[in-house]
């Protein structure tokens, strides 16, 4: 729905990241390997943001079908992805099995 806040998640397509030379504007494509959507964002991307990695973007869909994000969250594994995105990635055979984290012993 246009001008309604949505959440878009999936894998950042390799080769899709475009950065503006004179601003913090970026454009990239996110896919669940069935469908893709272009996302634009103005700001500093998270440290974990990489092409080929999972992200969730929060923003609004414009009339051109582009998500204008006001927040981008990088995900280090699919455990933090929206369930519907994780399912789509698994169904497409693109999702890697989640690797449990190992606690660090302190003291």
UniProtKB/TrEMBL annotation:
It is found in: Cell inner membrane. This is Cytochrome c-type biogenesis protein CcmE. PANTHER family: CYTOCHROME C-TYPE BIOGENESIS PROTEIN CCME HOMOLOG, MITOCHONDRIAL. The keyword Flavoprotein does not apply. Heme binds at residues 76, 80. Transmembrane segments: none annotated. One of its GO terms (biological process) is protein-heme linkage. It holds the Pfam family CcmE. Heme chaperone required for the biogenesis of c-type cytochromes. Transiently binds heme delivered by CcmC and transfers the heme to apo-cytochromes in a process facilitated by CcmF and CcmH. Residues 87-107 are annotated as: Disordered. GO terms for molecular function: heme binding; metal ion binding. Keywords: Cell inner membrane, Cell membrane, Cytochrome c-type biogenesis, Heme, Iron, Membrane, Metal-binding, Signal-anchor, Transmembrane, Transmembrane helix. The keyword Membrane applies.
